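User: For documentation purposes, I need each entry recorded in a consistent format: the amino acid sequence on its own, followed directly by the corresponding structure tokens. There are two entries in this batch. Please keep commentary to a minimum and don't merge the entries.

Assistant: Recorded as requested. Entry 1:
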Amino acid sequence: MKRFRRFAIVTAVTIVMGAAFPYLNYAVDKTYEQIKVLIDVMGLIQSNYVENVDQSKLIYGAAKGMVDQLDDYSQFYEPDVYTRVKSDTDGEFGGIGISIESRTENQKSVFTVTTPLPGTPAWKVKMMPGDVIIKVDGQDVTSVSTDDFLKMLRGEVGTEVTVTASRVKDGKNEEKNFVMKRDLIKTENVKWRMLDKKIGYINVLEFTGHVTENFDKAMKDLTSQGMTSLILDLRYNPGGLLSAAVDISQRFLGDNKMIVYTKGRKQENYQEFRADKKAVYPDLPLVVLINRFSASASEIVSGALQDNKRAVVIGERSFGKASVQSMIPLADKSALRLTIAKYYTPSGKSIQHDTGHKTGGIVPDITVKMPLEQEQLLQQKEVVIYYPDENSKDGGEPGADGNVKKVYKYTEEKVRGAKDDVIDRAVEILHAKDVLGVLGKTA
């Protein structure tokens, strides 16, 4: 009798669960049917297509197709691409030396130059921020993926590549061909100098490998030269490593203050990143510069310092790239770069841009926007690049950090006379810090 009752209870529970979760069964069946479509298509191609097809190409193509239905930042990397991506993050790769911002408009790929890296082939031929690349070696790139676009730019050192870009000049778009020889690109991620006897200047180009180490070196050098206030330039900085953004923010924020937090669909994707108990430079007056090309990690730093009232932010609204990607290596050495969360500033503002509502990004405390032509002239202005000692054959005098400086000069009068209005405004603010009284103290 007891056995019968137990069976009856189990049967009743099973019936109730079946009634309560019919959608669950339906969803599983639906997913299986859809996956079966992919398997059927692959089988038909292999059996009937006019030529033999590499099965891995079909699988990788299907994976890319799935990821393409997501956002602009989720990507599927084939093994060779994943190897290259890892080397890019480490800060050394072959190519022409540009940082790009890629997006999709009207189902077409748009690749915009955010900055040519100083001393690289792209910089020497005067490619400019805002240039939109439309062809590589005569091949249209508006219908290719970001991975394929980067493959087209890469090649053996010394080989020639022609890049066609559209540039706005006098309110009109004009096409321009840039002929370059590929070179080994060693990304310089931190540059620094004294602007006057008291104001130091650090330009962080990217948050790539060793950036925190190089930033600390810059701070030590500038402090030894008598720096009493700092301008941190994050313009044209496309981002990079979250850990580096947190580390640099911690140099100026203490007391366990919030730097950034992430929030996604899963609870485990909620993470808080906070400062240490003590900051290294808690009272150093600080101004941060941003522009429309400042993205991701650079927005984390500027947002953290702004929300904690630790710095004045000057420039123009930043790009608004707030998605958190997780790089997931797969069994065949390919990888999936998947958006799993979004970044939020300490005050809870989403950094992610919303084109329709014109929201997102970091809004500066003081807006200073320069004309595009002025920005382009500044890109051509004299640039000092630090090289390792073994490259001393390139000429130049040893810098304060022991490295050799290599100087590229343009003699055009209007280039030499170009002024950086954003830096000039920052200098004005720091000279007035004793009057303002709020730049050097944490709240």
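Entry 2:
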Amino acid sequence: MNVVKVNGKNHKHRVFLYALSTCAWCKMTKRFLSDSGVEYEYVDVDLCNDEDRRKIHEDIRKRGAQPSYPVIIVDDKKVINGFLKNEIKEALDI
């Protein structure tokens, strides 16, 4: 699984993003996080092999979310399904 780290000045929270490389909402989420200076890691799920995709879907479901993208995981606790800007801002204190 190819995890990409995006450096940022704001690293108060651990932010992990499951995304699709072709998804407009996922691209907006990445841009929003980067523009906000948030350090985060992401995986483009559609570029993973079948086994990694299965593990990712299992991880998302275990967290009580649906494998619809983007999926933002904050501090390994809070899960946000979709580009919900206000919810992301609140979770990240930005």
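Summary note for entry 2:
The beta strands are 4-6, 15-19, 40-44, 71-74, 78-81.
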